[in-house]
Task: structure prediction
Amino acid sequence: MTARTPATDLSGDAPADIAVRVPFRALLRTNLVATVLAAAATETFAALVRASGVPLAVGNPGGSASDVVPVTLGACAIALAMVMVVGIGIAALINRRASRPARTYRIVTSVLVLLSLVPPLTAAETSTGTKVTLVAAHLIAAAIIVPLVSRRLSPTR
Result:
């Protein structure tokens, strides 16, 4: 999946592969596919949790009981669609600037995934079952999106 172009090494003898920047449209397409797959997986997971009798309702971090709202069908997909916009920007910037785009993307997104776990864990008036479900949904989405996008990015430049 990495875009490569043949080149000649400095001695002029043998061609070498040099990784080039992945075209934005290809990166966008990969992000879209990864997001759709992650949305389907997280929505399925949330539906299974609801079907098992766990009520899903989440409050704001530092909020009160009046801030609690149900996690409805489609909430995971909508959240992923919104975050995808930022994710595409991050991937495009890394693709353009980093000397090792795939590695840099994995590091940056790993940190961001860990940070994304803070709001569900600190949400006020939220049951443990909901917190566990939301953390698991974040990890499911990351387990789908991060490898697909990082494989699309060049390992080196």
